[in-house]
Design goal:
Number of domains of chain A: 5
Strand order of the largest sheet of chain A: 8-9-7-6-10
Helix content of chain A: 25-40%
Strand content of chain A: 15-25%
Largest interface: A-B, 73 and 51 residues
Number of strands of chain A: 19
Structural class of chain A: alpha/beta
Distance between the termini of chain A: 60 Å
CATH topology of the largest domain in chain A: Rossmann fold
Largest sheet of chain B: 4 strands, mixed
Shape of chain B: globular
Number of strands of chain B: 7
Oligomer: heterodimer
Number of domains of chain B: 2
Number of helices of chain B: 4
CATH architecture of the largest domain in chain B: 3-Layer(aba) Sandwich
Structural class of chain B: alpha+beta
Radius of gyration of chain A: 29 Å
Radius of gyration of chain B: 16 Å
CATH class of the largest domain in chain A: Alpha Beta
Helix content of chain B: 25-40%
Largest sheet of chain A: 5 strands, mixed
Distance between the termini of chain B: 31 Å
CATH class of the largest domain in chain B: Alpha Beta
Shape of chain A: flat
Strand order of the largest sheet of chain B: 4-3-5-6
């Protein structure tokens, strides 16, 4: 078999594919064969490079040259100039400046990368069940530095200066939280890790615990040193069995290496961690409910203040932070507060992990600097919308967040901007919707979730959300009135103002944001009895065009509920009372006689 | 049992780790063996990454290729699971997506044995720190 001296990587991500990467690939292959190079150079298709707007992309290995917006007609030049003559085709390089750097220094072009991996620095790189590999990636050096070189207050100051804010959604300044817990006097304090990740479609924390559990352990120990706690507790969902297993292995290894236990790094500091399992209730992600659940009580929130920093687990001061927040801490200690603060926006520092899901090509886990726009996340890193459909909305912040539209695409993502836009950061789930999604149904879906997950302690949340759900259900069935829309808004405001905890205070957000951004769609449902996305079955009707129908009986035979009747070779019709709107008849009809109204 | 008590202890582990890697009790020079990492997060496992990992371990041994196959966490490419990273001696690591048994076989025969890249590479589009 031939050994290839060069490879041409052609991006075959969905977007590049749509912009003719296939023809580019074929053209390159043809040119190679024409020049008898097919045994020396191989053309390979790859996944998305994340620069979809510049596609199709061709990368030449081993010299790493990146060509953008390559057309089939450019193939000849690439083969002749680059491969045969060793000359770079400058006009196909990414930017002017890169082309210039090339000309002056002959360096490999550096293409500005959209993602930076801080919290995910080890995730997907190291073996999570091997502590030595974590140590080989500078693991536990931050803990050592804190215990042997800094006072607790110095560490707190570093975290404060870094500008790190809680990654669980609220965005409370982490250093300040640590300081408050540290200042409370008590014989016993606790460090708690909130690993109760519950947003639909979110898996950031799970991936960190599965991929880099030691970073969480190390950060919890650092927090224990700062706040004066010698006991750490991880509250994790039992439905994350792999994360539980890897955390357990990691804790055992850390104990075996003396990195948990007594007198860590000969500093006199003792610290150990235990796991507490949650049964998967969304409300237990709220810190007071989480603490009650850990105590063996019902997972119900209580009024704050007192905050857990003063009165937490078993009544003792407890510092609660989320998994991703902790995962950032060791890096901040190792690389310094200034380094961390240099990334991100004025008020939101560092990076944020997002789980991209929904109608997007590159579903997965990404980490971007704060301040990256939604457009970059969805259309560049995410590779755009599936099937080339129209982008409609993106839901950030899960059931507590809101739906943002194409108007918000250029909003730089940070805590404050998302709130100003009517959504929130949340823990980092990002669900992308296209033209086939009905926004009323989406609001109904999220309300269904909160109704299920409401603990029932306070009336606004327990009763109010149920009523919101019922009104939305009525609208999707085509029975809504304009009054209902006013009622939706008023009730939402009341629930927001009067609910006890974060769950109820934010649960109407999907309703409010869709009312604000997709008002016409609500009105269409109510007034025109129409669902433009075609997803509200209550508003749809399949009918048979009597003139087009040939009476072949294909639809009648396929109908699962026998709703179609008619004579053979005569026109058929659908009994709307029986029809379940599955659309099978439409698929089966060869004469386009079945219509959707 | 190793007890880490000083920064030197940590540095020693780091240094040692870079120098040798152990496969079933034997020491290997990381510069000389093929290193493969299989993304074994929940999404990877759900898409069949464990079977791929077992296949790679068995087949590389059968085909007399000295290789170290380890697990790692989620690489982030959920749309292309299972994902594996292959590092040939002296070369940059390459990530392959949608690796089933057939693809794994192709990777061994064409990339590992011959250095020939095959379709389905996932380009790195992030900076690490």
């Amino acid at each position: 078999m031939a050994k290839y001296r060069m490879h041409l990587l052609v991006c075959d991500g969905t977007t590049c594919h749509a912009s003719q990467s296939e023809s580019v690939k074929n053209a390159l292959q043809d040119c190679l064969e024409l020049n008898n190079l097919e045994n020396e150079v191989k053309v390979v298709s790859t996944g998305c490079f994340g620069y979809c707007e510049k596609g199709p992309i061709v990368k030449v290995l081993p010299d790493n040259t990146l060509y953008v917006k390559v057309k089939p007609g450019d193939a000849e030049e690439i083969v002749k100039e680059h491969i045969l003559n060793g000359q770079i085709v400058k006009r196909l390089l990414p930017t002017e400046s890169v082309a210039q750097v090339y000309a002056s220094e002959g360096k490999t072009p550096f293409f500005d990368k959209k993602q930076i991996r801080i919290a995910l620095r080890n995730c997907g790189f190291i073996d999570p069940e091997n502590i030595e590999e974590y140590i080989a990636h500078d693991g536990y050096q931050a803990l050592c530095k804190c215990l042997t070189e800094y006072t607790p207050q110095q560490v707190i100051d570093i975290i404060k200066r870094s500008g790190l804010r809680g990654r669980g959604g609220g965005g409370f300044p982490t250093g300040l939280k640590w300081e408050i817990t540290a200042k409370v006097k008590s014989d016993q304090k606790y460090v708690i890790c909130n690993a109760d990740e519950g947003d639909p479609g979110a898996f950031m924390d799970r991936s960190i615990m599965e991929g880099d559990p030691h970073s969480v352990i190390e950060a919890m120990a650092i927090n224990g040193y700062c706040t004066g706690a010698n006991k750490g507790l991880v509250y994790i969902r039992a439905e994350y069995p792999l994360a539980v297993k890897r955390l357990k292995v990691a804790i055992d290894q850390a104990r075996a290496y003396g990195l948990l236990g007594k007198n860590i790094f000969n500093s006199g500091f003792d610290f150990d961690i235990e796991l507490r399992y949650g049964a998967g209730a969304f409300v237990c992600g709220e810190e007071t409910a989480l603490i009650h659940s850990m105590e063996g009580k019902r997972g119900e929130p209580t009024f704050k203040p007192p905050f857990p920093s003063e009165h937490g687990y078993l009544g003792k001061p407890s510092n609660v932070n989320n998994v991703e927040t902790y995962a950032n801490v060791p890096v901040i200690i190792n690389k310094g507060a200034d380094w961390f603060a240099s990334i991100g926006t004025e008020k939101s520092k560092g990076s944020k992990v997002f789980a991209l899901a929904g109608k997007i090509n590159n579903v997965g886990l990404i980490e971007v600097p704060m301040g990256t726009t939604l457009r970059d996340v969805i259309f560049k890193i995410g590779g755009g919308i599936k099937g080339g459909k129209e982008f409609k909305a993106v839901q950030t912040g899960g059931p507590s967040g809101g739906c943002l539209t194409s108007h918000h695409l250029d909003t730089p993502i940070d805590y404050d901007n998302l709130i100003a836009a009517g959504s929130m950061m949340g823990s980092g789930g990002m669900i992308v919707m296209d033209e086939d999604d009905c926004m009323v149904s989406i609001a109904k879906f999220y309300l269904g979730f909160t109704v299920d997950e409401s603990c029932g302690k306070c009336s606004p949340c327990r009763i109010g959300n149920k009523r919101l759900y019922e009104i939305l259900d009525k609208i999707t069935k085509g029975e809504g009135t304009m009054e209902d829309l006013t009622k939706l808004r008023n009730l939402s405001e009341v629930i927001k103002d009067t609910s006890l905890c974060g769950l109820g205070q934010t649960s109407p957000n999907p309703v409010l944001s869709t009312l604000d951004n997709f008002w016409e769609e609500y009105v269409e449902h109510v007034v025109d009895k129409k669902c433009r996305a075609g997803s509200c079955k209550g508003l749809m009707k399949y009918i048979i065009d009597a003139e087009a129908c040939t009476g072949c009986t294909a639809c009648a035979r396929a109908c699962p509920v026998n709703a179609i009747s008619g004579e053979r070779k005569g026109p058929h019709f659908i009994n709307q009372e029986i029809c379940i709107k599955c659309g099978t008849c439409m698929e089966k009809c060869k004469f386009n006689a079945v219509l959707l109204q | 049992m190793v007890h880490v008590k000083t920064i030197e202890d940590l540095k020693k582990i780091k240094e040692e780790f870079g120098k040798r890697i152990q496969v079933s009790g034997k020491n290997f020079d990381p510069e000389k063996v093929v290193q493969i990492k299989v993304g074994l997060g929940t999404s990877g496992i759900a898409s069949g990454a464990k079977e791929v990992m077992n296949f790679l371990r068995d087949e590389l041994e059968k085909r007399n290729i000295e290789a170290l196959v380890t697990q790692t966490g989620d690489m982030g490419y959920s749309y292309a699971e299972p994902t594996i990273e292959v590092k040939l001696p002296g070369q940059p690591a390459v990530v392959f997506g949608k690796v089933n048994i057939k693809k794994a076989d192709e990777i061994i025969e064409r990339y590992i044995k011959n250095g020939e890249l095959i379709d389905g590479i996932l380009p790195t589009n992030y900076m690490t720190i």
